[in-house]
Amino acid sequence: MAGVMDATAGCAGNIAYSDDNVRGAKGIHESGICRMQDRGSPRPVAMSEAGLNGDLFDFDVPAATASLAAGATLLRSFAREDEALLMQAITQVIAASPLRQMTTPGGYRMSVAMTNTGLVGWVSDERGYRYDAVDPLTGAPWPRMPELFRDLAARAALQAGFAGFEPDACLVNRYEPGARLSLHRDYDERDATAPIVSVSLGVPARFLWGGLKRTDPTKRLPLLSGDVVVWGGPSRFVYHGIAPLKPGHHPLTGTNRFNLTFRKAR
């Protein structure tokens, strides 16, 4: 995710995730989130039904649409039917621009492996955080964004109230067990009027959702494969992150979680 100057666990001066941030948050049932029933949603899906192993969460996750805050929506199972095709497309992107663990300007290596697809890609190194049209690893332009990606991002944004979303950048993240992304904001994009669309695939994760200030309370929300989070407008610069990934297994991704983060960067 863009703006991840505090996205690497253990970095001096960075904000690393701690359970203190979410102590007392037992999950979505006690988070105070206002749910809006999605008429087309399937019934609640238990962890065992999702083809998952491991005691990742201690409750069933409702298949519903949830309002996280003004301008922020969690779309349960929105990408579920496209999971296999999305993973095929991700494999092709990675073949052209391999995953890599980027470093922060301070020299710390991120635990999440990343690559990009689209007109520009987000990169981080000793020169700073920025968008670049060329993959610094291959020296070639980033792979063209698959139409499947564009369509999914646009449909999710529309469902969340953001019509006409046309992403030009998609950050592909791979989380292995233990990988994390600490609280941060996405602020490297020139177009702050467009939303962020984040798609979860594979092993479940705990999504950290804070406020506009780093010191605001943080909720911990379960994300299952196929879930999509969209935020923009008054929530565009909310602090968010991913807690350390717990061991698990998913039929499409093995022990890993993949995330697609769509943005309008230019």
Which features would summarize this protein structure in a list?
Jelly Rolls, 4-stranded antiparallel β-sheet, mainly beta, 266 residues
Provide a brief overview of the structure.
The chain has 266 residues and is mainly beta. 10% of the residues lie in helices and 26% in strands.
What is the element layout, followed by pairings?
Elements: E1 34-36, E2 65-69, E3 72-75, H1 83-96, E4 113-118, E5 121-125, E6 128-132, H2 147-159, E7 169-175, E8 181-184, E9 196-202, E10 205-209, E11 219-223, E12 228-231, E13 240-242, E14 257-263
Antiparallel strand pairs: 1-2, 2-3, 3-12, 4-7, 5-6, 7-14, 8-13, 9-12, 9-14, 10-11, 10-13
Largest sheet: 8 strands, antiparallel
Q: Let me know the number of strands.
A: 14
What overall form do the CA principal axes indicate? globular
How do the SSEs run, as a string of H and E? EEEHEEEHEEEEEEEE
Mean pLDDT: 82
Low-confidence spans: 1-55
Question: Would you give an account of this structure?
Answer:
By secondary structure, the protein is mostly beta strands. It has two helices and 14 strands. The longest helix is centred in the middle third of the chain and has 14 residues. The protein starts with 33 loop residues before the first strand and ends with a strand. The N terminus is likely disordered.
